[in-house]
Amino acid sequence: MSLAAFPIASQAESISETLPTLNSQVQRPALDPINELPNLREVKAGPKRKAAFLSMLVPLVQAENARIQSDRNWLVGVHSRINPMTADEKRRLSRLCDDYGVDCEPAKVSRELLARVNTVPLEMVAIQAVEESGWGTSRLARDSNNLFGMRCFRAGCGIAQQGTSRRFQVFDSVRDGVGAYLHNLNTHRAYAQLRGQRAALAARGKSISAEKLIGALHNYSTSPDYQQQLLSLLRTNGDLIRTHGADNAFVSGSPA
Fold first, then answer.
1. pTM higher than 0.70 for the full model?
2. Could you give the 3-state DSSP secondary structure of residue 31?
């Protein structure tokens, strides 16, 4: 299929560096001061703990999504223009191809690269973090900044799960964990269907919502009702997540 499947005028490829995710938007990056997850077990379960967790998580998701969106905007821009790439642009493209595990032709923006360099809806990221970390209270989350249950498979890597042989990744900061989770969805072969569905929505100029992508997460967990669990959590907490997304939006001048 040709790159015409990714229309430059579509909402998902806006040069404004924002992308609708249900009723929220990807915003410009904020700094991450969180090198250690706060002990959310000390916060009363219910609305207070939910608010504390989302106040910590949402700006980090927005920051990582904004970084990805900036790269996507650049890719769309250099693909759509007539002038050839400069040497610096070729190097940047090569780095993105390497980062996203795509074999690229020199100075060519491929369909596969565009399918990978794209954002993930805030609501889906937050809901998976809730499900995998118990609103940030799990041992794995507290000891390793790993909110998404991300495994590692090298001998002795990460930290062990008590009572099993499974091992899980350790991150220096919460934002590093968020970035690794997004990169995993954007590159691992297990999520090719998710990326294909997202690309099809982008090609039609449709919003890329959590509801539309959760159904493609069947390889994320061995739980037979994992996707239904996520959808149930989304129905219960979607408005709260979107409210935090709006409240934590980083607004500073006009888009670059």
1. yes
2. coil
